[in-house]
Amino acid sequence: MTRIAVLGAGKIGEALLAGLLAAGRPAADLVFTERHPERAAELTRRLGVGSADVPKAAAEADVVVVAVKPQDIAPVLTDLKPALRPGTLVVSLCAGLPTALFESGLPEGTPVVRVMPNTPMVVGEAMSAVSGGTHATPEHLALVEELLGAVGAVVRVPESQQDAVTALSGSGPAYFFFLVEAMIDAGILLGLPRAVAADLIIQSAYGAATMLRESSDHPVLLREAVTSPAGTTIAAIRELERHGVRAALIDAIEAARDRSVELGRSV
């Protein structure tokens, strides 16, 4: 069995551990690192997975998943470099950080795979994009896709597209939450109780997402099916277009892409 070390047990790290366990991977094949002892003890109690410091976790692992914040990567690489065994696969879940950063800070020839997941991993519905570094083989990529398949969908992209992925799906859930928040407020403005407005919008969002995933129709066709001549929907769409919502969303995603590029350059 492949032994996996998850460095950083925040929301994403914990979600990955839980997903791997749910997929049938034994707890004995997993280990995690966590800076706060109370948090480590709580996760061990709840998941049955042991914790260790970075050198020990890495030294015993076949796959090391780095799930720390980008600004915390320098000390992690310092601890990792002397501990890694030859051939150990390093998987980065750090937004904005290129594989070249890991390759330059780790032993020569270390295979690195860059991943951009998103927070729906906590409910097993992540969208993750994977890219291989200089020394990553197709077998390494296939292994990472198998692991991440336990917590959602996976797509393989060239690393040059990872900043765009970060902006689109990495940050994407926040855009939907923002839209749902605004729609709930609109329901309250129109006189609905908050709980009723939330139920209406959340179920509508869930149903619309299911239609998008299960239908072969373009989103334009699905929208047009709801948009009757001289009806309520077209009146709302006209206001959205008048306020430039489409252009604002495109600009926002472009700004997120630019910030991802900055993160990769600043470390």
TrEMBL record:
Residues covered by the Pyrroline-5-carboxylate reductase catalytic N-terminal domain: 3-96
Entry GO MF terms: pyrroline-5-carboxylate reductase activity
Top-level taxon: Bacteria
Binding site for NADP(+): A67, V68, K69, P70
Cytoplasm listed as a keyword: yes
Keyword Cytoplasm: yes
Principal localisation: cytoplasm
SUPFAM superfamilies membership: 6-phosphogluconate dehydrogenase C-terminal domain-like, NAD(P)-binding Rossmann-fold domains
Catalytic activity: L-proline + NAD(+) = (S)-1-pyrroline-5-carboxylate + NADH + 2 H(+); L-proline + NADP(+) = (S)-1-pyrroline-5-carboxylate + NADPH + 2 H(+)
Compartment(s): Cytoplasm
Record keywords: Amino-acid biosynthesis, Cytoplasm, NADP, Oxidoreductase, Proline biosynthesis
GO BP of this protein: L-proline biosynthetic process
Domain named Pyrroline-5-carboxylate reductase dimerisation: residues: 159-263
This protein's GO CC annotations: cytoplasm
HAMAP family attached to this UniProt entry: P5C_reductase
Role noted for this protein: Catalyzes the reduction of 1-pyrroline-5-carboxylate (PCA) to L-proline.
UniProt-recorded name of the protein: Pyrroline-5-carboxylate reductase
Species the sequence originates in: Pseudonocardia oroxyli
